[in-house]
């Protein structure tokens, strides 16, 4: 039993989690300690502090109880924090909704211009105007409406 792991054996308010680095092509799992109140789940993004500096990692497994290899030659380090993407996700969803709204506005604007152009170019009572008027009344779902 390595003396450096004695403290980990005495602590009770944590567990171990297995992570992989998201910026690596090497799929190797690393074990970190995490406080229970962090409430980590598989798939969560976390910040860890390996010797190379702060990095983002993905949680692959959360142990029900801390699993410390007391004979390990390496140290178990703590998870720095869980990455909270709530605000980021909300901002992206809002931006996507705005993009969709702008596309719909453009679509409706183009439709209105096309209808206005056809109505101004097709003389009343002409065969083409009669076909256009018939088209407006037969298109289902209000694709072309008189309100345009």
Can you give a write-up of this model?
- With 148 residues, the protein is an alpha+beta fold.
- 36% of the residues lie in helices and 19% in strands.
- Strands 2-1-4-3-5 form a 5-stranded antiparallel β-sheet, with no helix packed on it.
- A hairpin with a 6-residue loop joins strand 3 (45-48) and strand 4.
- The model has no long low-confidence stretch (mean pLDDT 89).
Quaternary structure type: single chain
Which regions have little confidence, pLDDT < 50, spanning 5+ residues? none
Strand order of the largest sheet: 2-1-4-3-5
CA-atom Rg in angstroms: 31 Å
What is the number of independent domains?
2
- The averaged pLDDT comes out at 89
* Count of beta strands: 5
Helix content: 25-40%
Which word captures the global form?
Answer: rod-shaped
Report on the biggest sheet: 5 strands, antiparallel
Terminal residue distance: 80 Å
The secondary-structure element order is HEEEEEHH
Q: What is the helix tally?
A: 3
In terms of DSSP E residues, the strand content is 15-25%
Q: What is the gist of this entry?
A:
It is built from three helices and five strands; from the N terminus they run αβββββαα.
Secondary structure layout:
Layout: H1 6-10, E1 14-21, E2 30-35, E3 45-48, E4 55-62, E5 81-82, H2 86-121, H3 127-138
Antiparallel strand pairs: 1-2, 1-4, 3-4, 3-5
């Amino acid at each position: 039993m390595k003396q450096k792991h004695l403290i980990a054996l005495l602590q009770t308010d944590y567990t171990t989690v297995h992570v992989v680095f998201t910026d690596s092509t090497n799929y190797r799992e690393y074990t970190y300690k995490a406080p229970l109140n962090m409430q980590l789940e598989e798939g969560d993004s976390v910040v860890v502090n390996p010797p190379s500096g702060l990095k983002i990692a993905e949680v692959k497994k959360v142990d029900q109880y801390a699993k410390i290899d007391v004979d390990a030659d390496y140290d178990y380090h703590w998870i720095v924090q869980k990455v909270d993407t709530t605000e980021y996700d909300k901002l992206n969803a809002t931006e996507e909704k705005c993009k969709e709204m702008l596309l719909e506005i453009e679509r409706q604007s183009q439709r209105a211009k096309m209808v206005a152009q056809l109505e101004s170019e097709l003389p009343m009572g002409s065969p083409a105007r009669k076909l256009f008027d018939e088209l407006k009344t037969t298109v289902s779902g209000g694709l072309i409406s008189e309100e345009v």
